[in-house]
Here is the input.
Amino acid sequence: ASRFEGVTMAPADPILGVSEAFKADTDPMKLNLGVGAYRTEELQPKVLDVVKKAESLMLERGENKEYLPIEGLAAFNKATAELLLGADNPILQQGRVATIQGLSGTGSLRLAGAFIERYFPGAKVLISSPTWGNHKNIFNDSRVPWSEYRYYDPKTVGLDFDGMIADIKAAPEGSFVLLHGCAHNPTGIDPTPEQWEKIADVIEEKNHIPFFDVAYQGFASGSLDQDASSVRLFAARGMEVFVAQSYSKNLGLYAERIGAINVICSSPDVATRVKSQLKRIARPMYSNPPVHGARIVANVVGDPTLFNEWKVEMEAMAGRIKNVRQKLYDSLSVKDKTGKDWSFILKQIGMFSFTGLNKEQSDNMTDKWHIFMTKDGRISLAGLSLAKCEYLADAILDSFY
Ligand code: PMP
Here is the structure.
């Protein structure tokens, strides 16, 4: 008998499990729209040219593999905070940001989760309904209580702004409010600049702490600055803000696990103390982070030529997604004889489209059409090619009606 008889089978992850099921399918028409990973028009993974250039620079320099400090690579931490807030942001000169390198977006969120659990016992994290599937796991494992605020309105396939504001208002004073900096996952629906101002008003009023998850900077609009404008708006009000960053999507560094947790504090003294505690949390978990992705980011962001080349490549990726978004909308509009308005697809931004397909309809997409997607009706347009838009439209219409 095994000592592990009591260990039950864990369910497959709702997002990464989709890729496993996709691999097992042998149909030639199969399409993986589950995980949000960028593909070329040929549906192949892409390594950015600037990443290859940064890597060859690193080889030429013969950089070593010594341990990084607990907080990660100093040049990366500097670059990542500057990318987030703008290099000339006075908050940086004032030394008010505690930044430590994290294991991509997920690991950075998890560090913040541990910090909240330790220093704000009992405080709740408010998360949007719906949200990226892993947010609930992260706060559950951090033993941080959470509840949801209204976000998506199925009637308009848009933002339930009044519901969102009401729920943030109704939450206990001093809660954390988790916000997607741009390109909300899974809905692709972001607040307008005016709505962000109102959200900031309510958060200030209630003494809540805003907590941004920035996983798509540059990928939503194609502009790094524009996609960080939500965070900068809160920071400019002098608020204390948490921000988790990821380079999985915008630099295509998925497997390098490179990101950061930034805590914007009211003074340099607070920032120093916060940083010391983040390091204390990281040390017994993984000791110190990996160097490779950090060097890539530091090289790309720190070198004006590579930085500009990155922007061009990112715009091209964001542009390809916009093209398939348009083509999918066109295909649906032409093929759908019911007169249904599909324009919500064009209003959504980022990698995803939230189709409004329910679980049964999403099952039909997979079972009958070999289109793999999460069961909440989300499809990753980054995994779609122009050539497959018609096929996808046929599948969506068949599943809908
Ligand atoms: N937050 C959101 C909203 C995401 O969509 C993702 C990636 N799917 C992440 C965080 C983190 O991803 P990673 O850990 O690869 O950086």
Observations:
- The mean pLDDT is 96.
- The longest helix spans residues 304-335.
- Residues 36, 104-106, 132, 180, 185, 213, 215, 246, 248, 254, 259 surround 4'-deoxy-4'-aminopyridoxal-5'-phosphate (CB under 6 Å).
